[in-house]
Design a protein that fits this description.
alpha+beta, 4-stranded antiparallel sheet, 38% helix, globular
Length: 424
Amino acid sequence: MPSNKLFALVDCNNFFVSCERIFRPELVGKPVIVASSNDGCAVARSNEVKSLGIPMGAPVFKYKEIIASNKIIIFSGNFHLYGDISRRLTQFLSQQAPTIEVYSIDESFLDLSDMVIPDIKKWAENIVQRIFREIGVPVSIGIGPTKTLAKLASELAKKNPNNSGVVVTSAGDLSLEQVKVEDIWGIGRMNAPKFRVAGIDNALDIANSNRTKIRNIVGSVMGERLYLELSGIACYSVGTETKPQKVISATRTFGHDTSQAYIVESALADLAARACLNLRKDGQLTERVSIFVSSNRFKKGYSKISRSVRLDYPSANSGQIISLANNLFSQIYNPKTKYHRAGVILSELSPENNSLQVNLFDAQASIKQMSNNSLMKDVDTINKRFGRGKIHYATQDNSKDWLPRKKDASPAYTTHWEELPKIH
């Protein structure tokens, strides 16, 4: 029986590139790449770049000739900007539908099932136009009776520039023949060959197959849900609750390799502070702190070493965890190693509201830990009001030489007063 549900997937087109074009409209229609940390790999490409054959994740240095001959503009990743634009988009979409699931930084599912919308395509086209007018990024919207069909419809909307950015699909829609199996949500390139061996090349083939065959290809649970979703029967709802993370980490590749201990210590301090901030945002505490440091894996003598320590009491205290991270590094530091990358990992997480109980045998220590965790929230409040990092630990300032290279980063147009766009 077909689903009586209706879902929409709002997907930003080439999101990072589109964010850069908001403030550089002269770049619309020109080839643009957004590069990763240290400007190493392409993490976003405009359609013009895709047409030149530069793949996602491509090392920029390998395509220097193509980049130069086609005058491709390269931006260093400005993730503060992209995060802020994503937040604005989420806020807008939350006003358009009663239930929203933020699937990724540039994709959100909407549950339209209980909404009375006379013309769904016209409604979606209006949303596309408003997002571009009010936020500045182009989006594609796919609509269908299941989340999988909505996802496939959004892909079709991206591929067809003559559809006003909207595709409404249903079970058995012949246009699903255009969607290859590797592009189907949940299948990917790893499972695609299994389907092709069975004579299934696209989404419509799956819908026209039988569930037993699909179950045999990818397993009973996944196969059953995939078959039902493509047949128009919803197996997934729009989830509004975010599940607590099991592990929280912060890792970085350094801008320059270094054998100086104080530079690595500064990097670990900054990474620990970032991980702890995310830990507190998630409403959790950690009982295990781990670090790793490594040399460049593309150079001779590659090494990677990690260490961890278990805490006496669950913590979200940045100062404590910074100290632990640097103590761990002191145990493994080798002055002959050129360090290229480092990371701080927080694990054995538990909710802050039920993690800490006073230890009867060491009441003062456990109460102090609770007080320190509470103090960090006050620090977060001040930093949120006056700017990220306004209050921080001195170790973070020991050196900035480790910071990733971002020689082509755009200004923080929306998050720093000093870098607001100027109109003359």
